[in-house]
Design a protein that fits this description.
InterPro entries: Calycin, DUF1934. It holds the Pfam family DUF1934. The protein is an all-beta fold. The protein has a single domain, classed as Lipocalin, CATH 2.40.128. 0% of the residues lie in helices and 73% in strands. It has no helices and ten strands. It has strands spanning 6-18, 21-36, 39-48, 52-60, 65-70, 75-79, 84-91, 94-109, 115-126, 132-142. It has a ten-stranded antiparallel sheet, with no helix packed on it.
Length: 146
């Protein structure tokens, strides 16, 4: 089965909740979308304040979603419903053990795979601190042809 890269516009909304309250983060990026069979991949570069560019690759499969970040921040986080997964989060300020427990995740494709949405609800524990609840939504839409 052939695959081709589609340039996309991405909107990301993240909510993080802990004992200190809620934090909401919204951003838009340009990226690319590729799918082949049951594997879907979204990739984008993100300018991180004070750090430089971080390349994020999201791979969606039937039973899991993985997020890989490369650059000044590095990690490979895997999401599986009802499972706890671990990775090491490398940051210029140090490295952290990160445990992720996924409660809900969903990938919805638009018509012709030209748009879609990823939704994830999960808890993250860094270095055995109190877990923080995350809600992550990513919407993508093929760039308009000009």
């Amino acid at each position: 089965m052939a695959s081709h890269t589609i340039p996309i516009n991405i909107k990301i909304d993240t909510e993080i909740e802990d004992e200190n309250g809620n934090e909401s983060i919204s951003k838009t990026e340009k990226g690319s979308y590729v799918h082949k069979g049951n594997i879907h991949m979204i990739k984008y570069d993100e300018q991180m304040e004070d750090l430089g560019f971080v390349v994020t690759t999201i791979v969606i499969q039937d039973d899991r979603i993985s997020v890989k970040r490369e650059g000044p921040l590095q990690m490979h986080q895997v999401f599986r419903i009802g499972a706890s997964t671990e990775c090491v989060y490398y940051h210029p300020y140090g490295k952290f053990r990160m445990e992720t427990t996924t409660h809900r995740m969903q990938f919805v494709k638009g018509i012709g795979n030209r748009s879609g949405k990823i939704y994830m609800n999960y808890d993250v524990t860094l270095n055995d601190q109190e877990p923080r609840r995350h809600v992550f939504e990513l919407h993508f839409q093929e760039e308009d042809a000009e």
